[in-house]
Amino acid sequence: MRPRVLTVVTASQVCFVALLGVCVALKPGLVIKRDEGGVSNYGVHWETVIPYTLAYALDAGLLVRAARLLEGTASAGLRRVFLALSLLLVLTLVSTFDYTSVAALHHVHDVIGAVLVAFEGASVPWLWRLTRRRFAADVGVLVTFAGLVLCLLASVGAWHALFVGQVFVIAGDAPLLVGATKSVSGATPGSR
């Protein structure tokens, strides 16, 4: 039996959040500094590189799987969101490993990260419209918006809260992805 698309999307988001949580647990000092930097700092430390890599790779891989499960349905837009998000996650992951050692790579990584956050933010209204469970979707929109504001403040140097902003975007986007998938697929978690 092939897994239902909702189960795959839910797993992608749970893996991503849980593995990034492992990173924070292993090296909490990166997020409690005055200028904590971003999530990618966990991809350059030996203690956290494995869970960080797994977080991005599993999320991207599971979203590609979900896109394949949606083939042949009336959800081409959601498929494109999954595939674009997967590509941006992979590009973020690949650009992470040497970004602290070469200035040009640092700029490339920053641009990719900004595009990833912008894409997640730009997809929010569309995902919100697809989601039928309005309360979770409304919370997702508010949390994502707060994250986008924090990321913007961090990017202009007004407030060093990039990690918190990125976490808010991730946390806000997750219920929207799951809710939109549930609405499009008509599935329930764990069903086959």
Count of beta strands: 0
Radius of gyration: 16 Å
Q: What is the total domain count?
A: 1
Mean pLDDT: 87
- H/E element sequence: HHHHHHH
The general outline is globular
N/C terminus separation:
7 Å
* Share of residues in strands: under 5%
Indicate the low-confidence ranges by residue numbers: 188-192
| Class based on secondary structure composition and strand pairing | mainly alpha
Count of DSSP-assigned helices: 7
The level of helicity is over 70%
Can you summarize the main beta sheet? Answer: none
Verbal overview:
The structure is a single chain. The protein is mainly alpha-helical and 192 residues long. The protein has one domain (5-181). The protein contains seven helices and no strands. It has helices spanning 5-26, 29-32, 49-69, 76-96, 103-130, 134-155, 162-185. Helix 1 (5-26) packs antiparallel against helix 3 and helix 3 (49-69) packs antiparallel against helix 4. The longest helix has 28 residues, at 103-130. The chain is globular, with a radius of gyration of 16 Å.
Please give a handful of descriptors for the protein shown:
192 residues, single chain, mainly alpha, disordered C terminus, 7 helices, globular
Explain the layout of strands and helices.
Blueprint: H1 5-26, H2 29-32, H3 49-69, H4 76-96, H5 103-130, H6 134-155, H7 162-185
Helix pairs in contact: 1-3, 1-7, 3-4, 4-5, 5-6, 5-7, 6-7
